[in-house]
Amino acid sequence: MIEVDTFKNFDDIPVKEVAPGFLSKFIHTETNTINFVEVKIGSIIPNHQHPHQQCTFILEGEFQLIVNNIPQVLKPGIFAIIPPFAWHHGKAITNCKLIDIFSPVREDYKAL
């Protein structure tokens, strides 16, 4: 039996600006949060940390990510696995499309 909530339309997910230039669509499951992000060129996410493991994948464009003072330019084919509580920040070198997967669920993002 297929559950009523199994299939959804991505177009029905509202866009939320989590930081200037970071436009997100969130999917929350019981165990993780998936963040589909469009980032405008030059947009910066300030240095921060959180208790979640984060996997970041670039679909389009280039994004400079610095994790624990180690810089890396992410582009399609290069991804990052950010451990819990690791300090990280970044800047969009071009317009970008990214997917971030957080585990466990980002309750702060659910509240947006």
Overview of the structural elements:
The protein is mainly β. The radius of gyration is 14 Å and the shape is globular. Strand 2 (22-28) and strand 3 (33-39) form a beta hairpin. The protein has one helix at 107-110; strands spanning 16-19, 22-28, 33-39, 44-48, 53-60, 63-67, 70-74, 79-82, 88-92, 96-103. The termini are far apart. It contains 1 helix and 10 strands; from the N terminus they run E-E-E-E-E-E-E-E-E-E-H. The strands form 2 sheets. It has a 6-stranded antiparallel β-sheet with strand order 1-2-3-10-5-8, with no helix packed on it. It has a single domain (25-110), classed as Jelly Rolls (Sandwich).
As for the number of domains, it is 1
Number of strands: 10
- Structural shape: globular
Superfamily (CATH H level) name: Jelly Rolls
Q: How much strand content do the residues show? A: over 45%
Radius of gyration: 14 Å
CATH class: Mainly Beta
Mean pLDDT: 95
* Oligomeric form: single chain
Can you count the helices?
Answer: 1
CATH fold-level assignment: Jelly Rolls
Topology as H/E string? EEEEEEEEEEH
Helix share bin: under 10%
**Whole-Å distance between the termini?**
32 Å
Output the structural class. Answer: mainly beta
Largest sheet: 6 strands, antiparallel
- In the CATH hierarchy, the architecture is Sandwich
